[in-house]
Design goal:
2 domains, single chain, mainly alpha, two-stranded antiparallel ribbon, SANT/Myb, about 40% helix, 2 strands, DNA-binding
DNA sequence: AATCCAGTCAACCGCAACCTA
DNA sequence: ATAGGTTGCGGTTGACTGGAT
């Protein structure tokens, strides 16, 4: 719906603006089946009238299952402030230290309120610095450069490798590090207690996060990014029709890829944890599609159409929002990470803001 | 009740970095 | 070595929302 700049000429004929639940569903389903090895080709293969860039952004910033929704905690905000003081507008690097948060999200938070909060602190600090000439003058984080943490550097490196949650996907220590970029691992982060940065990634949870991918659902085996290990969910062609609000005709050609049984490309779950994750994912997706429970109860119901279109009359049911947002309601990032999420347990008992 | 306005955030763009042939 | 293609990052935009008037 026309957010952002005017369209560039190359994208005439493609959908733009806000994503519909149908598009979200299609993207999620496609990625869980085939991964996202080629964003450029993805929309065509998934039957989406979007450019690859748009798909990637949507996935990274909104659809990734490992995203944490809801307000930033005070700890997270403090971490952002500190890291921004060190790194500046390196949002992806900051996001790397905040599991479940995206660079876009962090950027928005910074620009909307953190920046304002920091400004007074900076003034305050400047005043204090006038008295203590060398104390804590660097950075705008308002954190004195004290308490050298000998493990800060290595911890940060570890975090970058294991707690990756931003959208860059390449902070595996392998590539795409601009020469002039600040290597966090090389910084003398004397003024940062890195443990504070991992506010929402307790050590036990971190191994669950992918060390090398934009999606925590990818795995890094021998440095090679594997396909996403999400459960395989077979979406019947009729469901696509329902999702798309189409008549129950045959799916179009472009849809074929997305709906075809996933034979060779889908990763096979190998552990119980992954199976649990698969169950969770399947369950949620089914719920989102209104397929949870007796199939005939929901399939092809008008309510489903309304529901999927985001105008559900389902009322008090948890499914009252569009399927994808419902998915987020029940899938707080870290907790819902495939291998540990208990979908019955809301992270903090309250829905995300917004 | 209607209008205004500031804040929020999803999505866009351009560019730089990286990859591959 | 390099040209073309792809991906990721950071800045910006503007629709949406809720509170204030």
């Amino acid at each position: 719906m026309g957010r952002g700049r005017a369209p560039c000429c190359a994208k005439v004929g493609l959908n733009r603006g806000s994503w519909t639940p149908q598009e979200d569903m299609r993207l999620i389903t496609y990625i869980q089946k085939h991964g996202h090895t080629n964003w450029r080709a993805l929309p065509k293969q998934a039957g989406l009238l979007r450019c690859g860039k748009s798909c990637r952004l949507r996935w990274i910033n909104y659809l990734r299952p490992d995203l944490k929704r809801g307000n930033f905690t005070a700890d997270e905000e403090e971490t952002i402030i500190r890291l921004h003081g060190l790194l500046g507008n390196k949002w992806s690097k900051i996001a790397a230290c905040l599991p479940g948060r995206t660079d876009n999200e962090i950027k928005n938070v910074w620009n909307t309120h953190l920046k304002k909060n920091v400004a007074p602190r900076e003034k305050q600090k400047a005043g204090a610095a006038g008295k203590n000439d060398d104390g804590a003058a660097s950075g705008d984080a308002g954190t004195p450069a004290t308490a050298a943490s000998s493990s800060a550097s290595s911890s940060m490196t570890t975090n970058n490798n294991s707690g990756r949650s931003d959208n860059s996907g390449d902070h595996c220590g392998t590539s795409r590090e601009p020469d002039d970029a600040i290597d966090v691992s090389l910084l003398q982060l004397d003024d940062i207690d890195v443990s504070d940065m991992l506010v929402d990634a307790p050590p036990a949870a971190q191994p669950m996060l992918s060390p090398c991918s934009s999606s925590s659902l990818t795995t890094c085996v021998g440095g090679v990014e594997e396909l996403i290990e999400l459960p395989v969910i077979e979406i019947e062609p009729e469901i696509w029709s329902i999702i798309d609000g189409e008549s129950a005709g045959a799916p179009d050609a472009s849809r074929g890829d997305a709906t075809a049984p996933c034979t060779g490309t889908a990763a096979v779950s190998t552990s119980e944890a992954e199976e649990a994750a698969n169950d969770w994912w399947l369950e949620n997706l089914e719920k989102e599609l209104g397929l949870w429970g007796p199939a005939e109860d929901t399939q092809a119901h008008p309510e489903l159409l309304d529901h999927i279109a985001g105008f559900s009359p389902l009322g008090a049911l948890e499914l009252e929002r569009d399927p994808v947002s419902t998915y987020f309601q029940t899938a707080p990032a870290v907790d819902h990470l495939p291998f540990c999420y208990d979908h019955e347990q809301q992270q903090d008992g309250s829905p995300p803001s917004r």
